[in-house]
Amino acid sequence: MSSQFQDRQGKPLSLALYMYDSCAYCQRVLAAMRSLGFDIPLRNIRKDPSALAELVQTGGSRQVPCLFVNGQPLYESADIIRYLQTEVRR
Ligand SMILES: N[C@@H](CCC(=O)N[C@@H](CS)C(=O)NCC(=O)O)C(=O)O
Fold it and tell me: What's the Cα-to-Cα distance from 80 to each of 41, 53, 84, rounded to whole Å?
């Protein structure tokens, strides 16, 4: 299956946002995603124990939001939003 997203060089990107609904920082990222028209898969760590386990094992922290980019964690809402705005293409 081809990726919906690409980096600036046109290479496919696999993206997933680890989040939960009541997190204000997650809501900021979700608002940016809506504004960019990016339909990025969500992994809700409060509803899905396997998502929480993946976040902690791979990311090293249970902090959300965390954007997984080709399996690599990117923490901090401001950094995630900047990354989406500047590096990601549909
Ligand atoms: N500076 C971080 C703050 C993120 C943050 O504080 N996230 C909270 C939820 S709103 C969190 O992950 N807390 C740990 C937890 O819920 O276990 C950002 O902007 O992303």
Answer: 14, 21, 6
